[in-house]
Design brief:
The protein is α/β, with parallel strands linked by helices. It has helices at about 1-10, 10-50, 165-175, 205-240; strands spanning about 55, 65-75, 80-85, 90-100, 105-115, 135-140, 160, 180-185. A hairpin with a 4-residue loop joins strand 4 and strand 5 (about 105-115).
């Protein structure tokens, strides 16, 4: 009797045997993502608890998230506006400026988020500190690069509006070599706008929540399939 019920439901059993492992795989993948994000946050916290390291030149061997202090000058004319950055439901830009150290090295400085015109007719007015200043922030090796749909036309003149700013493109615009890192300013630093940066794009808790959902769906499917078989077996038993 049990064998007959299984034979009648073999297509459904085959579907369950395919779907459940997929759901479990997705659940474990989300748990791994949560663990990876937690490690990044712990690394960020450990580095930022250290006292800022005073840099006289740009060093490539420093770990990501390391707090540093540099001294030099902002370029008052040349900067980039990274558009389509939404903060608290408001359209705006992220401001990135070149900063020249006293020894002549240049590093890109992420100055935070600035509200913009949603109609994109007017650019925001960016105020840049003049003269020799000291900045404190932390290093981001992800820089301002990211996914872009093909080559962007930036046109002549400054500021330049972009979706993303790979280091190679910044070097091309400035005509000088740059270290493959970005200095993200601490809150309250000269030239700083609204800070919106997070080391992870999704907190570990959210990945864990997604994992629970995938595992829950797998459990529900197994339970429904088992209930379906039990109902068929019970009905068959009543008929005999």
């Amino acid at each position: 009797m049990k064998l007959t019920a299984l034979r009648k439901n073999w297509p459904l059993a085959l579907l369950v045997a395919f779907i459940v492992p997929v759901l479990l795989t997705l659940g474990f993948w989300q748990l791994q993502r949560a663990q990876d994000k937690q490690q990044v946050l712990q690394q960020q916290q450990a580095q930022q608890m250290l006292p800022p390291l005073v840099l006289n030149n740009v060093r490539a061997d420093l770990p990501e998230f390391r707090a540093v202090t540099i001294r030099g000058r902002f370029d008052p004319v040349r900067y980039w506006l990274l558009e389509n950055r939404i903060h608290n439901g408001q359209y705006g830009f992220e401001v990135v400026s070149p900063f020249e150290l006293e020894n002549g090295d240049t590093v890109l400085v992420h100055r935070g988020w600035l509200a913009g015109d949603r109609g994109r007719r007017l650019l925001p007015e960016v105020q840049t500190p003049d003269g020799l200043i000291t900045l404190t922030g932390f290093l981001d090796r992800g820089g301002a690069s990211g996914f872009s749909l093909g080559e962007e036309e930036t046109g002549e003149g400054w500021p330049k509006r972009l979706q993303w700013l790979p280091i190679a493109r910044a070097e091309q615009h400035l005509g000088k070599p740059l270290p493959n890192l970005l200095l993200r300013l601490e809150r309250g630093q000269p030239g700083m706008y609204t800070p919106t940066y997070s080391a992870v794009n999704m907190p570990p808790e959210k990945h864990t929540g997604y994992a629970v959902q995938w595992f829950g769906m797998a459990a529900i499917i197994i339970a429904l399939f088992g209930w379906h078989l039990w109902r068929q077996l019970s009905t068959s038993g009543e008929r005999t």
